[in-house]
Design brief:
Number of strands: 43
Largest sheet: 22 strands, antiparallel, barrel
Structural class: mainly beta
Number of helices: 6
Low-confidence stretches: 14-23, 105-110, 513-518
Number of domains: 3
Mean pLDDT: 84
Length: 768
């Protein structure tokens, strides 16, 4: 073996030393993430998985990835509401700039994560249950002080006001009344029973990640009340929330709304998200000159706190609390608190205090078993004129779910238990032995459910499920469902067929008391039985790419058939609302269409329409349901001027006539509402990295329900019926002072009574 000469050995050593930096060279990349409309995208995730490198874009849309090994790697970019990008990028310089443009959510809506339809996270495309998803960005196009008002621009969903004076309301889905809609927060049934009327107020919108809507019965998974559908409000995870967020706006009517949130790192594995909402309106307005406030005056404070504890093997543990206090009143313009509960000046004053606790804990076992829990207490002190309504409600809920995948089968099973305590000062909880004593209601509702999601092949999926509940008042209740989904090979077309059963345990008085406002007596004709419904849905989704323009279509046909439906009878006696189970049947049927269009120039159009027929039949006679429109439409048009960072949003809704309650055959008001529309426009200007300034006009057409109507509150000049004469059957007589034979009643209401107004606001978001 020949020896290596010293000069060659020295040369090899020098070459090796010179080559070491080449092998260890690293570079940095940075850039800005924008939408196709030119908007900055903050909180986007930018990563190179193979290098285990990642970053989050800041409020200027800027990201920085450092210490990247030279070479060609796959870069991934994702953000809620936008299409995911996967692209190869070459790292060959110490510093390089790479900017990216993300397409909007409508183009990737089928890939969005949903949980409401099956209780587990999966993409919207893969869900056999049709779920509509609305991001926080959607609601910013028309800012409102509560999630109740924010839902007004969702197709087939209508916030319904139930009282012209106190302005309380509920959520209608496909024409079905509020008691048929279940409202969840992070999947927990927080808003129900007594709190349905008020629980949607005061949820800080700065903490909302998205809102999921399921139309049609969901009782198989969620039990009672999920008959017409459900609204699931998903709050942000502390890890994904901005460091500080503030959103403050005011209107020309004197309304002030403040949303502030901040996240904290309590320890190495614990993060907390705190949010505060404050709404104040103290400007009494009477534009229709009936001597009653057009809009209820309010003072509301809500505090929300959510905790996320990181655990071994990434197991789930979240805990959240919320406290809401609200003081609202409406009534005669000269009302003050000294008249509360009296007969001198009419006013409706409502004090609400409620607390909520809810969370989820994944058990430390090999199997995926999650325990979800919630508890809430609601105290209400209301005065409707000289009628007092004092109530307390406490609900405790626990649910244990087990997720198990075996081959092509994905099983979910669960055990649930709900306890409800309810007490008030009305006959609803009076003792049968002594009406002067109370007998609070205690309701136990244990249940169990199971579902099997079967992957038949790449294009077909079947979901079958059933649930059994035992109500301590009504006995056994069984609810099955089956869902089928087909998608095309290229996943641009999706067809879903759903069939299921829903039920609702009667709790009418506690849910509808706000509509009564002391003006009518509540009468229960018989012991109310649980309502049952059978529902069929056919849903078709199509994505169309026309060059650089994207078109998304989402069409649904629905049919719901009720037995034992509880129908409020406003007509038999003008001084009463009579509740009884319908001896006939009730039907809600119709079709809806949503369309999303995104143009490359930055114009985005979201529009929807629903045509429906909601009615009941009794002894062969068909009668249209009260407060159910035959047609509704919504739209959201947005355009961004990229060069000046200014965006314009034009939103609105349109409703067809709905049947309204009249008090007598002489009542001069129309039995049907007119066509009506609320339209809004907003300008948003980005200033620097962290600030948005926005403003515009709400109710551009200055529409209010009193236009074209002689009055909306019956006998507003005699709210205590002191000058009304009655016959022996309790019917109001026609007299010189009462030419229409009416009594005081504020239930003739179908839309908001607030006219045109300007608004101005500012948002500040600091991501890190």
């Amino acid at each position: 073996m020949s020896r290596l000469r010293p000069d060659k050995f020295f040369l090899i050593i020098c070459l090796l030393i010179a080559g070491i930096p080449g092998f260890a060279q690293t570079g940095n990349i940075s850039g800005v993430i924008r939408s196709s409309g030119g908007e900055i995208i903050h909180a986007a995730t930018v990563s190179i998985p193979k290098l285990k490198a990642g970053a989050i874009s800041d409020n200027a849309g800027r990201y920085d990835l450092k210490g990247l090994s030279y070479g060609t790697w796959q870069l991934e970019i994702s953000s809620v509401g936008f299409r995911r990008i996967k692209t190869n990028i070459e790292i060959k310089d110490s510093e390089s700039e790479h900017n990216f443009v993300l397409e909007p959510a409508v183009e990737s809506s089928l890939e969005e994560v949903v949980v409401s339809g099956t209780m587990k996270e999966l993409s919207k495309l893969e869900s056999p249950v049709p779920v509509e998803v609305y991001s926080a960005r959607f609601f910013k196009a028309n800012p409102t002080p509560s999630i109740f008002d924010a839902l007004q621009n969702i197709n087939g969903v209508r916030p319904q006001l139930n009282c012209n004076i106190c302005n309380t309301g509920d959520i209608h889905i496909n024409g079905l009344e509020g008691p048929y809609t279940m409202v969840l927060i992070d999947g927990m049934p927080i808003v129900s029973g007594l709190s349905t009327v008020y629980g949607l107020s005061g949820i800080p919108q700065s903490l909302i990640e998205r809102v999921e809507i399921v139309k049609g019965p969901a009782s198989t998974l969620y039990g009672s009340e999920a008959v017409g559908g459900l609204v699931n409000i998903i709050t942000k995870k502390p890890v994904n929330a901005p460091l500080i967020s503030a959103d403050i706006f005011a209107t020309s009517w004197g309304e002030i709304n403040t949303d502030i949130s901040a996240k904290f790192k309590v320890s190495g594995n614990t993060q907390s998200l705190l949010g505060v909402n404050y709404f104040n309106y103290q400007n009494a307005v009477d534009n229709n000159r009936d001597n009653f406030t057009d809009v209820t005056l309010q003072n509301r404070l809500s505090v929300f706190n959510k905790w996320n504890i990181e655990r071994k093997d990434n197991r789930l543990f979240t805990l959240a609390t919320r406290y809401v206090y609200e003081d609202r009143w409406g009534g005669e313009m000269n009302w003050s608190r000294k008249f509360r509960g009296g007969e001198e000046v009419y006013g409706e004053s409502i004090y609400t205090r409620r607390w909520e606790l809810f969370g989820a804990y994944q058990l430390p076992v090999k199997e995926k078993i999650i325990f979800q829990f919630s508890a809430n207490g609601h105290n209400q002190n209301s005065a409707y004129g000289n009628s007092l309504y004092l109530a307390d409600q406490y609900i405790g809920f626990g649910q244990l779910t087990w997720f198990k995948a075996i081959g092509r089968h994905d099983f979910l099973s669960g055990l649930t238990y709900r306890y409800t305590y309810y007490d008030d000062n009305t006959p609803a909880t009076a003792s049968a032995v002594d009406i002067n004593k109370n007998k609070p209601a205690h309701t136990n509702l244990p249940g169990l459910f199971v579902q099997d999601e079967i992957i038949l092949d790449d294009n077909n999926k079947l979901l079958a499920g059933m649930r059994y509940d035992y109500n301590s008042l009504h006995g056994s209740i069984f609810t099955p469902r089956v869902n089928y989904k087909w998608n095309s090979t290229n996943k641009t077309s999706v067809l879903r067929v759903s069939f299921g059963n829903g039920y609702r345990v009667a709790n009418v008085f506690t849910e509808d008391h706000a509509a009564l406002t002391g003006a009518r007596e509540v009468v229960f004709a018989n012991d109310l039985k649980p309502e049952r419904s059978w529902n069929g849905n056919l849903n078709f989704v199509k994505k169309i790419y026309a060059g650089n323009t994207f078109i998304g279509l989402d069409a649904t046909a629905f049919y719901t058939w009720f037995t034992n439906k509880i129908i409020p009878d406003y007509d038999t006696n003008p001084n009463q609302i009579i509740y009884d189970n319908l001896s006939g049947t009730a039907v809600s049927r119709g079709v809806s269409l949503n369309i999303d269009i995104t143009f490359p120039a930055g114009l985005k159009i979201l529009a929807g329409a629903t045509a429906m027929d909601v009615y009941n039949t009794h002894e062969g006679l068909k009668k249209r349901q009260l407060f159910a429109e035959k047609f509704s439409g919504v739209w959201n048009l947005g355009y961004t001027f990229r060069s000046i960072r200014l965006s314009v949003d034009y939103t609105g809704n349109l409703y067809g006539p709905m049947r309204l309650p009249l008090l007598s055959e002489h009542d001069p008001r129309s039995a049907y509402s007119p066509w009506w529309s609320i339209q809004n426009i907003q300008l948003t200007k980005k200033i620097g990295k962290y600030v948005d300034v926005y403003g515009g006009i709400k109710n551009l057409l200055n529409w209010t329900p009193n236009k074209g109507t002689p009055f909306i509150i019956a006998r507003a000049g005699d709210p205590f019926d002191k000058n009304v004469q009655f016959d022996t059957n309790g019917q109001a007589l026609v007299t010189a002072d009462n030419p229409y034979g009416l009594t005081f009643d504020p239930s003739y209401v179908y839309g908001p009574n607030q006219g045109i107004r300007g608004f101005l606001g500012i948002r500040y978001i600091l991501s890190r």
